[in-house]
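Could you please consider the sequence and fold appended to this message?
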Amino acid sequence: MNMLTDNDTISAIATAVGEGGIGIVRISGNKAVAIANRLFSSKSGKQAARIVSHQVVYGDIIDPESGETVDEVLLILMRAPRSYTREDVVEIHCHGGPVPLQRILELTLVLGSRLAEPGEFTKRAFLHGRLDLAQAEAVIDIIRSKTDASLKTAVGNLSGLLSTEIKHLRHVILSMIAQLEAAIDFPEEDIEEAAAADVAQLIIQVQADVDKLLATAQTGRILREGLATVIIGKPNVGKSSLLNALLRETRAIVTDIPGTTRDSIEEYVNIRGIPLKIIDTAGIHETTDIVERIGVEKAKALVKQADLVLLLLDASMPLAPEDRAILELLAGQQAIIIVNKSDLPPLLDFTALEQYSGNRLVVRTSITLGEGLAELEEIIANLVYQGQVSQGEAAFVNNVRHADALRQTNQRLAEALATIERGLPPDCVVVDLRAAWEKLGEITGDTIGEDIIDQIFAQFCIGK
């Protein structure tokens, strides 16, 4: 598959916007070396075109029109195909201020390159066969990783853990197609029946393998995007203190005055490698204050959208009507009940709590003393992984597009199995199997339209 018809040389700033010790301008394409030759003057007098591939050379960037020195730099030339894009690539490592970076980028554009589109370097790596589409998508996941666990998942997919599984399944489906097509070419009835029976068993095995991958999708999505977690409870029950304890630093306002948090505060929290996109909401209670009322209504809406709800109750207070109302909000939601202030004399009726909790997990904590937090983190980790092997040991599906393709693959396989069970001819089964094979190919990019590819790479940053 090669849709690369654009022979333009592209360039872009590959480092983050702002000041830094080092900034990088990246150039890729058949004019990359010639552009570097016009701009770069090495301290040894060697021209860029004569630099050995993959060696670092010290020198200056010179404006060819004015002869002015723009910056001292290190230049790395990576000749095709031993580069990220499999084209000639030049990287200019300069001082990391916006002015030298912009000046050098402008000079590359004047000398014949064009500004790269978002993700175009990685797109060229894909189109030149250096990466498949699942691996290319893992690049942006690495950039956006929020914890070590999400990074390991992304690196595993970049190294080809998921792609290897998908290619194996496609190979098995292709062997089924070949077996059925052989039976079509030799239409003796007993051969067709035997081939159909063999293929039916293989379909069941592939369905099981696809189901295993799909079982990782929820965990993979959470590792990639974060577990949307909402903290709810009455005012002054310890919601902001819990957020600060999980963050291990003070970000939310914590006071002894009820109703301090009037809006929601969103933070990412690292819980044993799992990124929790945690939202500390306004306390849910009856109020006449218009600002507080808006916050309360927003909290109720967030509960319905959450992956996980952490409900805080006060062990030193009886179960109030407001607590029971909050418990009713949890219907259909994954939730953990945290009974805080367990170091104080207990007044909470746990028997009454059981009647309203719906057999949900209950953790007793004293956030001020740091008690019960380790148990809470363990419970959250178990909910996310659900007994699966840890990331890095197997492929994780962490992309909605991939999960959707796998679900559609299983649907096509189910249709193929039903076709066999109805005793229809092998060529009808082949149609369903080929559809499943193509759906799996969408994950690796072997069978996907250019418009989808453009849409995927448009999510990348410029320079990657």
In short: The two ends are 21 Å apart (CA to CA). Residues 189-215 form the longest helix (27 residues). The chain has 16 helices and 13 strands.
